[in-house]
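Technical annex B. To support the medicinal chemistry partners, we prepared a structural model of the target in complex with adenosine-5'-triphosphate, based solely on the information shown next.
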Amino acid sequence: MNAPLLSVEKLTKHFPVRRGLLRRVTGAVQAVTDISFTLEAGETLAIVGESGCGKSTAGRTILRLQEPTGGRALLNGRDIFALSPAELRAARREMQMIFQDPFGSLNPRMTVREVIAEPLRLHGMASGAALDRRIDEVLSMAGLSSWHAGRYPHEFSGGQRQRVGIARALATNPRLIVCDEPVSALDVSIQAQIVNLLQDLQAETGVAYVFISHDLAVVRHIATRVAVMYLGRIVEMAEASQLFADPRHPYTRSLIAAAPRPVASGRVPQVPLKGETASAMAPPPGCAFHPRCPFAQDRCRTDRPELRPVGDDLVACHFAESLPPMPKETAGDESPALARRLQVLAHARKEAA
Ligand SMILES: Nc1ncnc2c1ncn2[C@@H]1O[C@H](COP(=O)(O)OP(=O)(O)OP(=O)(O)O)[C@@H](O)[C@H]1O
């Protein structure tokens, strides 16, 4: 069997906390601890979880936009974390990122042409007429026209801006794109267009996505596999269809059940998500989810469960096999809000076909 495109092994990223005049290190934010997964070419692995669980940190660290605390990330067998600065610059051609706000970090005085040309020039991939051709090509792939190239970011709508962000990410023909909440700032109908565009581009180019999102409807639509994170660790990982049909970790069940439901229907989520997530500076001992888990037992307060095979899933729960089955209306039949969002996505897909 071929090696996976991306293999993340025990990735850890802790941020030092400094206090006082001397800025002494007094603790650490344990943003990501020991996460491992693989990603094949052309596949989409979604990372989901509540705000602050470490999704963005995981994505940014894999691309080494920030230095890891530990672990390895092998892209086509080469450890990204072991590359010299020059090797890393060259490797960036293979791995790109799409942000929620693609222009947040860019110079507003750059035209779209300059935005897209930058990575191509940086990697010495094109100049002169070839550069212009490549810019036109990726604009067209992202559903934009050549004349958009002379415009400035502020002249675009949110959806078009994201298309420019996608065109820039595609320019160097990367094998891996980390998409960090790429549609969460957009209107629902625009979200559908962008999600479908990402799927079409994947079919066309074979690019793999790490897709970071807190939006289960979008994840269900786009992901091949899903990793659920809680306080910096993966607590469940499964094929997307499997995870939504039969979530096994109590936290995953809570996330799915927490999607809004009308009170009038009398449907009450079986595993309401109660309480706040603990601080990433001091995760609870044992299973970090135990203070919020309705099924917690003594062992959960002291022993941290490892991610282990349970059926076709990987689940970090001591009692995954003995939890009561999830009621049908919570498991298979998603909330009306979620169902509506899925319909919009499917409809946009049909229209585009
Ligand atoms: N540069 C940093 N310095 C210190 N702590 C950080 C830094 N970046 C992130 N964190 C902390 O790391 C934890 C994980 O944050 P992260 O942004 O990765 O989570 P997230 O799941 O992507 O959340 P969101 O969806 O809100 O972006 C949080 O506790 C956050 O406050």
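Notes passed to the chemistry partners:
The domain at 39-69+84-225 is CATH 3.40.50.300 (Rossmann fold).
DSSP finds twelve helices and twelve strands in the chain.
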